[in-house]
Amino acid sequence: MSDDARALAYLAWRQIVNMAREMLKRPSRVVLWVFVGIALAATVALRMVAGALARGHGRLLPVPGVPEPAATGLFFAYLLLIAVNLWIAASGNAAGFSSEADARFLTLSKIAPRRLLAWLQLRSSGALIVQTLFVSLFYPIIFTWAGEPFPMFLTIVAALLFVAAIRMPVLRASVRFGAAPFATLAVLLGLAGVLGLGVVAAPYIQPSLAPASAYLVHLGFGSTLRAMLAGAPLPILVLWALPLAALALGGVGSTDVLPEVYAASLRAIATAKRNKRGLIGGLGGNRADRYSASPTAVTSARGSRSWRGAFALIWKDWLAFSRSRGAIGRSIALLAGGVAVGAVAGLWTRRGHDPNILVIQAANFAVIFLSLYSSIALNADLGKPLWWLNADTLVARLGAWVVAATWRGAALGTSAVLGCAIAIGSLRFAAIGTFVTVGIVLYLRCIGLALYAMFPSQIDQKGPIAGLRILLAYLFIAPAGIAAGIAGAIASSFVVAGAAAAVVASIECLVLIRFAAGRIRDNGIGIARAEAG
Amino acid sequence: MPIFAIKNLTKSFGNTWAVDDLSFSVDGGEIVGLLGPNGAGKSTTFMCACGLLRPDHGTFEWAGQQLGPERGRTVSLIPESPDVYPMLTVWEHLTFVAKSCRLDPGWESHGAELLEKFGMLDSRDVLGQALSKGMKQKTLIAASVLAGTPVLLFDEPMIGLDPLGQRELRDLFVALKAEGKAIVISTHALESAQAICDRVVIVKNGKAIAAGTFAELEARSGEHGSAEDIFLELTR
């Protein structure tokens, strides 16, 4: 092992050891970790066994594989993902440093820049592998339809690794040769992806286009993916060669890209912080903008009389959102994407699949996925006098925060539901789907807030609290579901069922917010400080 | 003594010129104050100088040698918010620097000396997340000194420090100067700047509008009074 590698390994290892020590200092944390670990392991095992028994197979993991034309569709979706990443890298957005300290100490070191960049690339890719493993473990339902577990894991990791690994070499090449060729390539790949997806999906809209879709499937893009998921060694090896080559290319040459990597890292760090606060934009800009963008000025908004007290927090959030660079454009694109995904899912159900089952599966996935990635950070608010100057009660303020932090996610989910509803032509589906979507996002925020008030440290938030959020989500959603079922059965009306669910959900959310307020009251700064520890 | 020189530095963000053809130098064993109102381009200058922001034009030299993209090894920036790794102790920061800079065996005694000089020997096993701003600053300075970085840039170092912290930091500047470090300090604490800086460069809208000792600036401005009076007269 070279001196450089030894130094970087020391840096990573000591941070892991110290983090583990810090976690073990509080007995409540140890109990939390053990409880969540046992609960999730039991859930995973139960679901795998239940899945296997339900299908009557003699093995735990039945393997029907990904059918065509879905496999071909996945291939073109992957092309689209590569195109997006190419575009991002060509635009100078390849983050690598995890913090300002990381940039400060690593640039101070005498580690060769090419090795440093390779390390940054490897580290961020390593995080991706761990996250993929985590999601795969806690979402074993994937195993029941996608393929053999181990080859599937190898395929997904290699595919995601390649997407992450191409950013650095493309950034270096863009700085050296100009961004235009790579941006053009990204556009061409993106068009190929969209066109391929369009042809695959076309027969669902216009049956006469089936021959075109069949021809595309016949070309074999999907069969390669199916072979990988079934465990064919050669395609998997070829796929793995791609990220390894990209990682190697990331460390080749002497082009200086540290300024671009630093600026992109600051932007990524600032965005992650804002997301944890449930925000997308910052009112006063941030350090990343300070060094990478021209100062901006906007016309001051006239305070509306209706946005007073706690509602002023929602108004402030809207200003921050609307003034964040590209936020409106990104949101429109995301909503359009949501409608498109929902429409494709809706068209898929025309082949005899039950749309209600689709909604339940999607909601189930949303609960698990959003719970894992919705850690909360409120120190920027709780640590500011402006937050405490508000005339309304803390419960009202936290309620306003929940709304401000919820509506974007709810809008995105609703867009997918509406896309699906349009495709299947059901107003009832749109109403129920919207209700369920908004409800789930609200639940998750309220649960996250209550858990944050108990365990504000980011170590806990990223660790066992993610698992606890999943468990509590099911626990809190159950009463609303039961209430809806009973009320619906008695009144024979889905409107009454929805109203019953809404009442129970509102009470539960209020209880969670009141609980959080009780913990935060008189201890705002303490919670804000504990967040960093 | 070797000289650190910034020559014709220009940096724009879109249509805004953050730094406009700025040139100045600082000798080893000298402290230069970079003064100017908010938005004058001081932080941008520092970010370019340490290699974390790509300048549009301009060169950086140390001891007559032009510095390349890896100038972060020669020019160390201690920013206004001195960030350290939250999950490394003070000593582990120094250990990482020693390993990554391939320091000769025996660096430990130098590291311990630095911690003692900075009054941080008792804090050597404290995690970064538990350090105060002043302690973080000192950790970064100790790391830079241990790495042998000859040029130190301080961006608003006095902000957020209590009077004792400010006094300790001023003493540290003097000690580093005596060791031959070339030091540039961006600050709004004009009285402190007057006390410790050998020369000052005043920037406004990205341009250097005045440079020299406080006595020279006093003569030039025609303002007889405090450093604040002179600064306000020149940046009016």
Q: Summary?
A:
Chain A is an all-alpha fold and 533 residues long. Chain A has 25 helices and no strands.
* Assembly state of the chains shown: heterodimer
The profile of the biggest β sheet of chain A is:
none
Q: How many strands appear in the DSSP assignment of chain A?
A: 0
User: Largest interface: which pair?
Assistant: A-B, 40 and 47 residues
- Largest sheet: spatial strand order of chain B: 6-7-8-3-9-10
Strand percentage of chain B: 25-35%
Mean pLDDT across residues of chain A? 79
Number of strands of chain B: 10
Supply the number of helical segments of chain B.
8
Overall pLDDT of chain B, averaged? 87
Strand/helix succession of chain A: HHHHHHHHHHHHHHHHHHHHHHHHH
Element order of chain B: H for helix, E for strand: EEEHEEEHHHEHEHEEHH
- How big is the Rg of chain B? 18 Å
Please describe what this structure looks like.
- The complex is a heterodimer of chains A (533) and B (236).
- Chain A is mainly α and 533 residues long.
- Chain A has helices at residues 3-24, 27-55, 70-90, 100-108, 113-138, 143-146, 149-165, 167-177, 180-205, 210-218, 221-230, 233-250, 258-276, 287-292, 311-323, 327-349, 355-372, 379-382, 385-389, 394-424, 427-454, 458-462, 464-491, 494-520, 524-532.
- Chain B is of the alpha/beta class.
- In chain B, α7 (214-221) crosses α8 (227-234).
- The chains are: A mainly alpha (533), B alpha/beta (236).
- The A-B interface holds A 3-4, 6-8, 10-11, 14-15, 18-19, 22, 99-111, 113, 256, 258-260, 262-263, 290-295, 532-533 and B 13-16, 39, 43-44, 47, 50-54, 68-70, 72-73, 76-77, 79, 81, 83-89, 92-93, 95-97, 99-102, 127-130, 140, 143-144, 147, 149.
